[in-house]
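Example record used in the benchmark description.
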Amino acid sequence: MAFSGNAQKNIKESSENMPMISFTYGHYLPAGDLLKRFGNNSGIGGAFHYKLKNNFIIGAEGNFMFSRNVKEDGILAPIDSDDNGYVFNEDGQVAQILLFERGYTLGITTGKIFPIIGPNPNSGLMIKAGIGFMQHKIRIEHQLDIIPQLEGDYIKGYDRLSNGLMLSQFIGYFNMSSNRFTNFYIGAEFFEGFTQNRRGFNYDTRQTDTARRTDIFMGMKIGWCILLYKRTASNYYYN
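Model output (structure tokens):
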């Protein structure tokens, strides 16, 4: 007679080493210098983390930021053709121009889970901090129109491309379910970017822009985690 049995890491009773990947969504409010340029935005991204048995976490994260809330709508003033603020295409028709916020953050993070709440020692209050890189710009879209002033490199004189060093913080709740399926985190996240305009010269203001900026995002973030550990199978044979 023979039979086999399965064993797995007992995350219900003990803290375990655990690699994981996460898919994230966040909604953020701007502050600092960024408040003058953009409104609320959203971010989607991903992360890889490794949780140690002592509940310390290290990892790498990235977010793609996007929004239609652009406040600097006067950047196209130099190519406005009348008092109503219209821009005309090469055929003399009113062009449809859309402005968007686009950007991203990349960083490495470290932190710890404090198992004061949750279903097992792997869950609880999570606090993280990180360092990385932030970039954002105004995306100018006019696909249905040909506008010579916004073709090729000319468009770079209006997009306000800015980037620089970034710091980040997160505080929230991390849940690692005992059945492996409901693994997530949710909480408040903050980004502080120390950026500078990389175009140098803005066509609308007709001057160089070398000011150093403090660009801040703050909001709520949720992540869905996929644990990467495998079940360990053990076979036992009896005669």
